[in-house]
Amino acid sequence: MSSASKQYWPKGLPQTLDLPKTSLYYNLEVAATRYPDKPAIVFYGFTLSYAEFLQQVEAMAGYLQQVCEVKPGDRVALYSQNCPQYMVGYYAILRAQAVVVPINPMNLEDELRYCVVDSGARALLVAQELFEYANPLLQSGEIEHLIVHAYSDYLPATLEMQVPSAVSAPRLGLSTTSVTLWQDALAQELTPARFNGKHNDLCVIAYTSGTTGHPKGCVHSHGTVMASVAASAVWRGGSPAFSSLAIAPLFHFLGMQGGMNGPIFNGSTVVIMQRWDREAALLLIERYRVNMWSAPPSMIVDFFSNPALGDHDISSLLRLMGGGAAMPEAISRKLKDEFGIAYNEAYGLTETAAFILGNPVERGKRQCLGIASFGVDARVVDPATLEDLPEGETGEFILHGPQVMLEYWNNPDANTKTFLERDGKRFLRTGDLGYVDEEGYFFMVDRLKRMINASGFKVWPAEVESIMYGHPDIQEACVIGVPDEKRGETAHALVVLKAGASSALHGDDILTWCKQHMAAYKVPTAVELVDELPKSASGKIMWLQLQKQAREHFTG
To answer: How far apart (Å, rounded) are the C-alpha atoms in residues 251 and 209?
Structure first.
């Protein structure tokens, strides 16, 4: 840790943590022992107590071991949107001493097949609306067992709010020799073998979305995942008295940690939603007095743009936190001025099990990743020479800490390119570009591969987008690089306007505004108004997809 970071270290917190030497499953066992009758999971009004949660985890773990013949160290895939079964399944896999392979529910058959085959998963827990993509893997023998769940099995008898159609869909009769319905598996009430898992056992193999080639499996132990969970809980002040909103997808480490593992570590209540819906989120926050919410900025922007906000009591909200993209300055200011909430930005990767850099809660900086957290060594290096760079100079982040993954699964070439030794420590190359200021705070500039080189000037799309969010009529913006005959490459902006924006507003009007608010070389050549921007399941704008489409169009 730099001397500057020490100066602004959160008051009262140690600079290193004594990390738990236990499994993630143990956290659930402790919470259920302490608070058996407390709501662990709330799903659109349905409640599962901690005692019931643990009971179902035990029963599903027994089924995995005795029927699916899952052994310690085996991989079991989890392919579903957010729901109680996801949380039960995740912890049941860990209870069986197996390894969770979370699959993006937006993946279709071939993408699912890659992750399943690459990880060597033998069984798959799947939501019924995704069964059509999973069943071919069973028929081909690439998967031996499918356990299918219906979201509607965990709904209250009377719904008091609108839910997605996939959630209310009744359970289908899909059971065959190798396909088991979730409720049938639980009903067998099989007892798993005695648990003797260790903190250094494998826990999760999470696949990165990647920008080129096949996804890579990030291998985490219980210890690396726990390091991130424990650090975040101490840093942000977790409490069993809190309730947390789980909307960010649980397959992604932002949702996995902030919406599931963190609350269970704290023994708090998880209010879970199958997918993002700002109207339902508003009702749930009000009804269940939600205190903490981990979400990408895009969800926060949408939520606080809801004109119905003033008609509801959201005063319980204490901590909004997340990362993955910079929070627009205009939205940060609105949160602070109108609601008294400081969005606690942090930085993490799938490779670091989420939290590794964080803004001190009492001294955060806007659009900033924060400082190196407990026991973390974070540096900025020249991407070409890997030599350390001084403060203020843009380079690549490299990270060393207890939450850094063990390796990429079965990918020695990627491991060689990703890890480096420095001063007797193993560092992770992030591929993210940024700088550290004179106070030890880290700022993102962009991804290493996203830079736009316009006539020799380096244009960082994230910076341009951040400035554009200051425009009063812009809801969302995405800046991409497209070919240009004169400049070689130039910036092109796609913009979603706010609902109340004037119909007379055109892209040229926004361009004029841009010229007044940023250096000339940063100003996009064109602004294209669109109805919506594509997003990944984790809420990130899919800039790469947009860039590929635009380049195909411009090159004809």
So the answer is: 12
